[in-house]
Amino acid sequence: MSAEATNPLSAAEATGPDAPSRRRARPRIDLRRLGRAALLGPTTRGRLPDAIGHVAEAHRAHHPDADLAVLRRAYVLAESSHRGQFRKSGEPYITHPLAVTLILAELGAETTTLTAALLHDTVEDTEVTLDQVRREFGAEVAYLVDGVTKLEKVDYGAAAEPETFRKMLVATGDDVRVMSIKLADRLHNMRTLGVMRLEKQVRIAKVTRDVLIPLAERLGVQALKTELEDLVFAILHPEEYERTRALIADNTGAGDALAAIAESVSAVLREAGIAAEVLVRPRHFVSVHRVHLKRGDLRGSDFGRLLVLVAEDADCYAVLGELHTCFTPVISEFKDFIAAPKFNLYQSLHTAVAAPDGAVAEVLIRTHQMHKVAEAGVVALGNPYTPPASGDGVDTLEEGERADPTRPGWLSRLLDWQQSTPDPDTFWTSLRADLAEDQEITVFRADGGAPGQLSLPAGASCVDAAYAQHGAAAHRCLGARVNGRLATLSTVLNDGDTVQLLLAQDTTSGPSPEWLEHARTPAARIAITAWLEAHPETAGAPEADPRPPVSVLADRRSGTKLHADLPGARATAVRPAGCCTPVPPDEITGFQVRGGAVTVHRSGCASVETMRSLGRAPVTVHWGETAECRVTLVAEAFGRPRLLADLTEAIAAAGVAVVSATVEPPNEQRVRHTYTLQLPDATGLPALMRAMRDVAGVYDVGRAQHPATPEG
Fold first, then answer.
1. Which of 229-243, 330-344, 586-600 has the highest mean pLDDT?
2. Is the peptide bond before 585 cis (omega within 30 degrees of 0)?
C-alpha cells in the first residue's frame, strides 16, 4: 500500500509560483471533503458519484465527447475495494487514486488512462485481481494497471524497488501511459509526504530526484517535473528552499515589472496585426534558485518569464521578428526548439529582450498546441501507438503480447541494456547514471543500413555508437570514420555527425580496458565489462602463442610499409606520426595508443620523450621493403627573384614529383617554402635535400616538424 501523509508545505508552496498560470480556472481540491464523499458511494443511478465530479469536469474540458460511464464503473470498483483502508494522514484511501486521476485529467489524459489511474492500486493493495480488471475493463486497462503494480518485498527483498522500476520501464516501452500514471502517483505521494519519518522522506525524495524527475523530463511532462523538483528541493535542501521562499516573498511586486513589459509586447504585436496571448509565467522555486546562483542579485523581471501563445508555427517567427525589431534582443539567449525540437517533444522559441530601463525579460514563443505538449508531454498525446488492425484493438492480443512501437531513442537504449543486467544493484546504478544524462544527440550511419540514425546521450563517443549499432559485434571495432575522416574510438560525437564504424574480420578480437574510459552509455560499459571479465588474460601477460607482427600500409598513396612487433596484442593500424613524418631510412620507434593503433616516430622526435615521460612503453617497429614515400620538406632561404622556380627545377631534376607547395610571406628578407613531395625511392631523400640546399640563397632544408603533443 502506498504510504503518504500530509505535507508541511501548502499546496501553493508545493506547486511553486507557477501554479496559478496552470490552474487559474480551477480551485484546489479539498481531499478530505472528497474522502467523505467517497465513503458515501454512488448517488443517483446512472450519474457519476459526486466524489469524481471534479475528475469528470477536468476530463470534459479536454475531451468534450468522452464517455464517462467507464469512469463511473472504475470508481465504484476502486471505492468498494479500498473501503476501510486509510492513509497515514487519516484520509480514506480512495482519495489517493482520485487525486492521481485528477492530476492526469487536468493534463488532458484520455479516458483509458484515467480508468487505469482510478484502479492503479487495486491489484496491489486489495483483493481485486488482474484477471478481474481485464474482464471488466479490457486488456489495455489491465496492462496499464499491471505496469504500475509493485513487486512484493516478500518475494524480492531489497531488490523489490529496482526490479519494480525495471518491470515498469519494460511496460513503458510498449505503452508510455504506464509511466504517466506512475509520475502522477509519485507527485501525489510527494505532496502528502510530510508525516513520514525524515529518513524515509529523504529516501523517497532521492529516488524521485534520480529516477522520476529525469523520466518526467524525457517524457516532456513539464507540469509534473517542475512540481516534483520543488517538493524534492524542500526535503533535500530545506535551508536553500527557505532562503528561496523568503526571496520570493520579499519580491511580491516582481510581477509588476514583467507585467509592464508584457503590456509593451502586447501593444507591439497588436500594431503588427499578430493575434497573440501574452502571459506572465512566474518561475517555480527551483528555477528561481538556479537563476539566483547564476546571476546573483535578482531584478523583478528575473522572477518569471513571458509566454507568448499564437495560432500557427509561422506566427512564432513573426512574433520573434517583431520583438527583435522593437526591443533590444539578447542574442546569446536565442534558441530555436521549433526547427530542432528537443528529444522530449518540446517545441518553443526562446529569446530575451531588454526594456528601456535595462530590465531583461526572457520570452517563450509557442503555438497553443506546442504549449499543451510542453506542459503535458506524452500525456497530451493519449495513446500514440497504433494497435493491430483487428477490429477489436488491443483486446484481441494474446496474453502478454503488445504492439512494438517506435520508441524514443533513450527508451530503446535503456530497454536494450537492462536485459544485460540481471543483477538488481547493477541495474539500479546504471539506470541512475543513464538518466543523469539530460541531453541527446542524433548521429547518422554512413553505410545506409537500418536504422539510418542512432540516438545517443550528449558526450557519447565512437565506442558508444559501435555498441548501439552492432551490439556484441562491436567488440571487433577497429576505429571509425566520422564525417568521412578516420577517427579513433575515443572521438566524442556531435549532433548530426555521420559515422561509419570499422570492424575487424578476426572474430576473436575484443575491447581493451581503455575503452571503458570513453564509454558513456550503460550498454557499452556493461558489454565491455562483461567481455573483459570473460577474458581476464587480455589485461595481464601476453598470450602464450604470440601473434605474428602486424604489417599495415603506412600510407596508401605511397605504398611504404611499417611493421610492429606486438606479441599477444592487437593493432588496428601502424601509421607514421604527423609530428615528425618518418620515412625510410629514418631510425624509428613506436608507441601503442588508445584503440590499439601504433604510431611511429623518428627516434629524435620530441614526442618520443613525451611518451616515455607518460610511462608509455616503446614498441619495436621497422621498415618493410623500400618503396615510394611521401615527405614534407621546409626550405629556409633569403628572398630573391626566381627562388621558387630554381627550387622547383632542382626537385624535378632529382626525379621527384611536387604534390603541393606553399610560400610564406617574407619576414626580414627571409622566406620559407614548404613542399610535399612524392619520392620514387626513400633512399634518394638525402641527395634531394642536398640538391635543394645547393640552390642559391637557401641556407637550410629540413623535414617538417610539428609541435609534440601526447597521443591517446
1. 229-243
2. yes
Name the grid cell of 16.
511553486
**Quick one: CA torsion of 566, 572, 575, 579, rounded to 10 degrees?**
-100
Q: Which of 125, 140, 217, 586 is catalytic?
A: 125
From the number of C-beta atoms within 10 Å of its C-beta (0-12, 13-18, 19+), residue 170 rates as middle
Pairing outcome for strands 498-503 and 440-445: parallel
Query: What's the mean per-residue pLDDT of the chain?
Result: 77
* Least trusted range by pLDDT, from 90-94, 243-247, 276-280, 437-441: 437-441
Given a cut of 80, whether residue 6 has pLDDT beyond it is no
Q: How far apart are CA 210 and CA 195, in angstroms?
A: 22
- Tell me whether residue 125 is one of the annotated catalytic residues: yes
Span 584-597, average pLDDT: 73
For the full predicted model, state whether its pTM sits above 0.85.
Answer: no
Comparing C-alpha atoms, which of 453, 457, 465 is closest to residue 438? 457
Cα 580 from Cα 707, distance rounded (Å): 9
In the set 50, 57, 124, 336, the catalytic residue is: 124
Residue 108 buriedness (CB in 10 A; 0-12 / 13-18 / 19+)? buried
pLDDT 10s digits, 54-65? 888 889 999 998
Q: Give catalytic status of residue 124 as yes or no.
A: yes
User: Using one digit for the tens of pLDDT, what is the confidence trace for 615-658?
Assistant: 777 888 877 665 567 788 888 887 778 888 888 888 888 888 88
Higher pLDDT, 131 or 669: 131
Q: Helix, strand, coil: what percent of the chain each, to 5?
A: 45, 15, 35
Report pLDDT for 686: 81
What gap in Å lies between CA 202 and CA 236, rounded to an integer?
Answer: 6
DSSP 287-317: HHHHHHHHHSS--GGGGEEEEEEESSHHHHH
How many secondary structure helices (H) and strands (E) does the chain include? Answer: 28, 22
CA-nearest of 163, 200, 162, 169 to 183 is 169
Closest alpha carbon to 308 in 344, 264, 343: 264
Q: What's the farthest any 2 CA atoms get from each other in the chain?
A: 112
**How far from chain centre, in Å, is Cα 583?**
45
Question: Roughly what angle, to the nearest 10 degrees, separates helices 424-435 and 522-534?
Answer: 140
User: How would you list the strands of the sheet with 440-445, edge to edge?
Assistant: 453-457, 440-445, 498-503, 477-482, 485-487
